[in-house]
Amino acid sequence: CEDCGKSLIGECKLHGPLIRAKDRVIPSRARLTLPHYLTLRVLELRAGNQQILGVFAKKVIQKRTQFGPYVGQLSTKLTCYDESRLVLQVLKDGGKYFLDTPNEDCGNWMMFVRLARNQEEQTLVAYQHCGEVYFTTVKPIEPHTELKVWYAADYAKFMEASAVFIKEESDVCPLPPVAKEPVDPLICSSCGSTFATFALLESHQSIHKDQV
């Protein structure tokens, strides 16, 4: 304490605690990359102050508008899985890698775009080009409309996915034909968990291998 001239453990009983000044909160890399005509909205607040975010248009966005590339870390397995986001993989140097975004400083704003549960709410299509993933609008997006994405036909085959699973209704809603794959959920033989795509199941099973 500079007033007492003493070195104390904890607060000074005579002069009280110090006035603490906090650093300014800096937005994450992902939030800073958000285009000016898009905005993030908190859709749900879960335990531990976990925010469920969505990306919304602030003005009309024309059809065939391309966003990207998607920024993420190349990984052989996902370190963080969010059931409301698309699982994305790319081919790099002959290998197949996940685009992993364990935190907001490892990706760009595209990591906040939620998956489309059916064709009606889909506004974006995801596809791979030259080892990168891009999102392109499939129809004009009106102001205050949430951007939602699903795989393009060829990319769905690459991801071994063909349908969108709606959790609330425990049902499968088909999008435009993309692949003649079964729409039944894929089941982990070790724990019985179900997954919508083979890539996601494969990443999950690697956790059991690590435990063994």
TrEMBL record:
UniProt cross-references to Gene3D superfamilies, sorted A to Z: SET domain (2.170.270.10)
GO molecular function: zinc ion binding
GO biological process, one term: regulation of gene expression
Occurrences of domain C2H2-type (ranges): 186-212
Occurrences of domain SET (ranges): 38-152
Record keywords: Metal-binding, Transcription, Transcription regulation, Zinc, Zinc-finger
Record flagged with keyword Zinc: yes
Keyword Metal-binding: yes
A Pfam family of this chain: PRDM2_PR
Top-level taxon of the source organism: Eukaryota
Entries under InterPro entries matching the protein: SET_dom, SET_dom_sf, Zinc_finger, Znf_C2H2_type
Ranges annotated as spanning the membrane: none
A GO CC term attached to the entry: nucleus
PANTHER family associated with the record: PLAG1 LIKE ZINC FINGER 1, PR DOMAIN ZINC FINGER PROTEIN
Name the record gives this protein: PRD15 protein
Protein's organism: Campylorhamphus procurvoides
